[in-house]
Amino acid sequence: MRGSITLGEILGIAIRLHSSWFLIAALVTWSLAGGYFPQEYPGWAAATYWIVGAVTAILFFASVLLHELGHSVLALREKVPVRSITLFIFGGVAQISREPPTAGAEFRIAIAGPLTSLALAGLFGLLKVAVPGDAVLAAPAAYLARINLGLALFNLIPGFPLDGGRVLRSLLWGLGANFRSATRWASWAGRGVAFLFILAGVGQMFLGGFLNGLWIAFIGWFLNNAAESSYQQVVLRDTLAGVTAADVMSRECLTVPSDLPLDRLVEDHVLSAGRRCFFIADSGDLQGLITLHNIKAVPSDRRDGFTASQVMTPVDALFRARPDEDLLSLLQRMDEADVNQVPVMDNGHLLGVITREHLLRYMRLRSDLGI
Q1: Same domain assignment for residues 145 and 211
Q2: Domain check: are 13 and 150 in the same one?
Q3: Is the pTM of this model over 0.85?
Q4: Out of 1, 116, 174, 356, which residue is the most buried by the measure of CB atoms under 10 Å away?
């Protein structure tokens, strides 16, 4: 979900908009103002269609946000931290820091979203009944009642990572399957549902509904990728369970003096040895870190006029890890900060370094060993 902007927080949860949301928001508003409302409610002024369409689109995405907040509130009650909620082209997603501790917790968290959408469908349905003579209010209420009902039913499809797939996983888990096995079965179900969407979309494209079919096939493609990646994430969690930064870090950290000319650093260490990052220290006193990103900021014909200390990232600004930090949470932090290497430090002392290459090699070795 890179490329997102943060709007604020609700219950300590960051609320974000992904860049793709603006596209879908514009398309929903246009389809409502230019197609749905003129067809269903002819005779309005053009401005009325656009105002009602824009307000309805906003309420639609507010409904998606409330759906995700339904999950999040239950997750917080089950002591499962929620880091953010992001609205994007396919709706919304709540990012939790860890999986639910029990099958019952998984069921309650998963079902909360569809129940929230069903409640919203009922609320908008009552609003439509309450204002039968006011089409400007009744029209968006009727649309939002149907769309929330559809959102609830769609998410109850028993395929991971949809809410129904999570409900299926909780049931399999509660019936005796371990968490990884339950996730695998739910993911297979999700991929099966995804392929049905793709087939239905392709079929509709050949029958004349090209754009609708393309969209349905695209949703199927997305669901298939999400189901597969969700299972791989569980495998990753199992692989890294109980592993700390100290278990993986390399203690062979190349340290160079602060006054080393940048062109010599490139010639002697980057090009000849293939190294990509270096610690800057004098007499054992760590001053900072220099990476290829820092080096590339200086034009190649001017590097002889710079020293390592002039382009390094100072130690106080370094993204760092503790030796006892859980490796999975560190990997998540590295991904969020978009860094490829991180020093492992304890009370200001450099103990080692972890790079993405270290992590990939470690996970590959554990996989090869069947651990």
Answers
A1: no
A2: yes
A3: no
A4: 116
